[in-house]
Amino acid sequence: MDFRFSPEFRLEEINKDNVLEAFRDRIEKYYFKPIKLLNNNRCGFAAIKLLASLIDILVKAKDHLTGHSSRIKYEYWLRDKLNLEKQDATDFYEDFRCGLIHSLMVVSLHSEQ
């Protein structure tokens, strides 16, 4: 069976010398390229779902907050890398990431105040 890590690399080909190149190929061609295509074709819902999954992968690749929950890591990444305010990071995690991944829709857990 031919398991692909990315379009250019089979899983069994990955080693310490090419892992960064393979990871770059995976992220660019399995995530950024499809996100751009979806966005250009006004398919924002699907683009955001893929983007939320990409952030999950980047958070796990970074994973310097060992021992913390994935939620804490995810929100920290949003604040650190995208300069989101704490509440905005929480809202994105709850409403977009969890909503899209678990419920297949954007949800709002917050009432209008």
Description:
With 113 residues, the protein is an all-alpha fold. The protein has one domain (15-103). The protein is 64% helix and 0% strand. The mean pLDDT is 87.
Distance between the termini: 55 Å
Mean pLDDT: 87
Total tally of structural domains: 1
Overall geometry = globular
| Helix amount | 55-70%
Secondary-structure element order, N to C? HHHH
- The DSSP helix count reads 4
Structural class determined from secondary elements: mainly alpha
Sheet bearing the most strands, described? none
What is Rg? 16 Å
DSSP strand count:
0
Estimate the strand proportion.
under 5%
The poorly predicted ranges are none
What key phrases describe this protein's structure?
113 residues; mainly alpha; 0% strand
